[in-house]
Amino acid sequence: MIPRIKKILYATDLSENSAYAFRYAVGTAQNHGAEIHILHVLEGIRENYLVPYYDLEEIQAMRRKGKEEIRERIQKRLEAFCQKEFMADPQCRNLVASTEVTEGDPAAEILRKAEEMKADLVVMGTHGKGLLEQTFLGSVAEKVLHRTKIPVLTIPIPKETDIRLTL
After folding, report:
1. For 126-153, what is each residue's pLDDT tens digit?
2. CA separation for the pair 41, 104 (Å, rounded)
3. Burial (0-12, 13-18, 19+ Cβ within 10 Å), 81
4. How far apart are CA 114 and CA 150, in angstroms?
5. What φ, ψ does residue 53 adopt, rounded to 5°?
6. Torsion over CA: 14, 20, 25, 30 (sign)
7. 144/107 Cα distance (integer angstroms)
8. DSSP-based helix, strand, coil % in the chain, nearest 5
9. How many CB atoms lie within 10 A of CB 138?
């Protein structure tokens, strides 16, 4: 039986050229009549570094403000993407069902969100690294691939400058 793809989790690091991977999420969503859920994970900042300078309420307010600013940035980039790629076709924007900005370990949060939303597919870009760096550092994509129970589409992000429209 051919797999049905109805929910796509697009995990983005908001890096330069990340829209390249988003194009694959959009194409897959269009081909399958699926919806896209965008996720960006902020690696957690340890509160103990901030406590000497701010009280807990201030830290929480800064976090909320930072997440909201990133969510707004994603929305603006989505609008720019739809304008450029689809000539402002409203169907482009309708493919995205949700946008979430969260904190934590990126791989763990991607896996958590995929399970929580019962995603059929995870789409994420991956930045090529040398063998030595890969051995010592690993990557978010590799960690997700080793622990996932659902298909993951990893898109190698090219370095060309002609695709610079981040999402």
Report:
1. 876 555 444 433 488 889 999 999 999 9
2. 7
3. buried
4. 8
5. -110, -25
6. positive
7. 5
8. 50, 20, 30
9. 13
Positive/negative CA dihedral, 119, 120, 123, 128: positive
Beta partners for residue 96, in sequence order: 36
- What ranges in the chain are assigned the alpha helix state H? 19-32, 47-50, 56-86, 90-94, 106-116, 131-137, 140-147
Distance of CA 56 to the CA centre of its chain: 28
Closest CA to 103 of 48, 41, 46: 41
What is the Cα 153 distance to its own chain's centre?
12
107, 140 Cβ separation under 8 angstroms: yes
Q: Which residues of the chain have pLDDT under 50?
A: 132-138, 161-163
| Residues 29, 127: Cα–Cα separation, whole Å | 23
* Residue 117 backbone phi and psi in degrees, to 5: -90, 0
